[in-house]
Amino acid sequence: MPKPSASKATGKTRRFISGVVEGFYGRPWTMEQRTELFQREKKWGLNTYLYAPKDDYKHRMYWRDLYSPEEAEKLVALITAAKKNGVDFIYAISPGLDITFSNPKEVATLKRKLDQVSGFGCSSFSLLFDDIETEMCPADKQAFSSFAHAQVAVTNEVFTHLGQPDTFLFCPTDYCAAFCTPNVSQSAYLHTVGENLLPGIDVLWTGPKVVSHHITVESIVEVSSVLKRAPVIWDNIHANDYDPQRIFMGPYKDRPTDLIPKLRGVLTNPNCEYHPNFVAIHTLATWCRSEGGRVGGQRDVEMTGGDDDEAGSDPCYSPKRALTLALTDWLQEFLSTDQPGGPRPLNPTHLKKESSDEEPMQTDVGDPVYVPSSGDNPLFTAEPLTLDDLQLLSELFYLPYEHGSTARTMLTELDWLKAHREAVGDAETEMTAEWRSRAKCFDVMCVAVFTMFNRLSNAPNRSILYDLYNYICDIKSGVTLARAYVKQLGGQSRPSAQVMTDDPEPWGFRGGLSGEFQRMLPCHGNRDLFRHPPMTSVYSIRPFCPEDKTEIQKIHMEMQRGEAKAPAAAGPVLISDGLAGGQLSPSPNCGLVLEDERGVCGYALGLTDATAAALNNQRTLPGDFPSLVTMQLHPRVTDPAPARRMIGSLLSLMKTSGSRGVFCELRQGDRRMFDFYSKLGSFTTLKMAGWPQDVVAMGTSL
After folding, report:
1. Number of continuous H segments (helices) and E segments (strands) in the chain
2. Exposed site from 188, 218, 582, 697, fewest CB < 10 Å?
3. In degrees, to the nearest 5, what angle opens at C-alpha 593 toward C-alphas 699 and 627?
4. Looking at 88, 98, 115, 131, which residue is catalytic?
5. Is 131 noted as a catalytic residue in this protein?
6. What is the pTM of this model?
7. Where is the GH84 domain (predicted)?
């Protein structure tokens, strides 16, 4: 553990502060969760809990109000539980929203509130002035030369009133380097704090930024020089209260253990959700034990860096190994049932009659065990969660500034498969083989995500699952769409209607008003952790010419395949097959071709009079729709806009050629084109007597 330090003010030996700050915006943790946290801290060697939930209204918004007897009882129980586990309970109060620093009544009210909490058995305190307006009221401007002087004056008075507690923390308004004007070393605010704050008061600091990627020894030496004391790091590396779509389960990292002797302490302000913070807190504890590579005087061999760690990694601490230790312990919590009636392994031994304290609703206890016959569906069995599943979970929800290795690999492979989709053609080449091999590997990774989701969903500990469920559902949805897209590119499935539509299902796109605001901004997406140059397809529409027949036939045949390299799928013959296959020529000026940078990628062809073609196929034409149109797009065209322009242009050409109405034919399974025509708004489904049941006709008047 870090060595204790001597206080310059009192000469007393003070232990290194290490633990958790509950300082996020959102629903506070429950009393039961906090009590469990104290037990974990004791077990892992952490010693501090800072009570600062932003949404405890008597901590911040209504800081003047005393706690009611019921609230007081809960706080007393919480402080007692912390002491029982050797955890220093620090009560924080945040009066900066509306306090008048120069008003003695306000200061007296603040003292009264902290005296009440002191009466609960609390002996450690913190004054927080973060995330507030810096403009002073007129009365304070007359009394103080600066905002910093006002804060320091009140803090010193309260600290003295409380008898100069061994632990008293001050959070400045400029609590990171990014907030300092013009910089840390020249900040008038920080210099005022450093020169005037009593030496027994410690200062909280988040590092270079609010959420700091790296915290270096050099940066801490600089701020310590200005503050005239070593700071306590309030670390937001695992905080997620700024984005409800993100959660972080990667290890504590990018803070060298050489920092420890330069600091007064480290407190992690983790995810809003309690249970997923297991990794954040566990790995912080491991980091704190790794100072100088020693634990209890012995080198911690398990935690020192090795060949499998990043170049230039900390010789005393390995994030990768710390993560494995944390996930190994967390797995045991996942597998423990946290409430009656939780999932159990589905096997016959658990279906037998148990003791008399069986839950009343389990009325099937003692019933004969169902054994499926050879032709029946097998019984569903919930596969147990594994360490590999949790490793994958962590890598998908890693840290604010980086994805885990599996997530990076999946993004890289998807980007490559998309960029080299032209390699999937009729001719087998080395590039084609590589594309299919990488697509197969990508598919395996997708399946691993689905497997992890299913196992997590059936884990006995439901409390952990409920904290994670929205996040794992979200990633499963995204991976499902990516997998379907790759299969479509590879010809392993029919093009999805979800891909080529401007009216997708809600689960097919990132929703929410906040997302729409961001997409309207010029720099949206430039902070994606996986970056590549933007790719924009440019399409052109031109008249059909006879030389286009070969390319049109290729598209037509490819769209009929059920699987890559499989023959055309069996199905009803369409009149329009003759147009796309080259046996029929479109009427003059009634053919269009869509091209992108790689060549022909779509077509729209028409017959102004389809009577003869229909007779050859032993079909009658719909009376008001004598003309036939057919349109198809290559799977790489996912933007519906050029398709709408092309079919609109073709209909105009056919009207000019004398047509009063057109129809199109679709195989019943062609959901993609059925949705496309339906959403044009002009085509309606026709009832055709004598036509095959698996052929759908749609028509529109011109």
Report:
1. 19, 19
2. 218
3. 25
4. 131
5. yes
6. 0.75
7. 16-292
